[in-house]
Model the fold of this input.
Amino acid sequence: MFSRICAFLTALTCVLVLLAGCGDDKNAPIVGRWQATKVKLNGETISFAELDCSDKEFSFNFKEDGSCRAVLAGVANEGKYTFNNTSVDIVYGGKTEKLSYDSGVLTLCINYNNEKTQYLFTRVE
Done:
């Protein structure tokens, strides 16, 4: 009887340890630093490097705790984000942005002078 109880407790402990290791970190896919790599403008996709905007950094740094740093056109702001599997809602500097997320690419759409510009970001760290 004692050996059955010991075997049961050992098995139960193993199952609990395995389940504890399977935590749900819903932010994991986007945690890290993201850099603009491409721009879509007027139906044409251009490498961000071709735009000669080296002094105008476009990046996001998402942390596990839901905080982030957004640098758009060289202007940095600290903020908070919520990842929803297909999008990221960011609140920073009194502004709210929604980025789409698909297959490891974040896309930020900006309308400027009635022209839609899409910045595509990929994770670099």
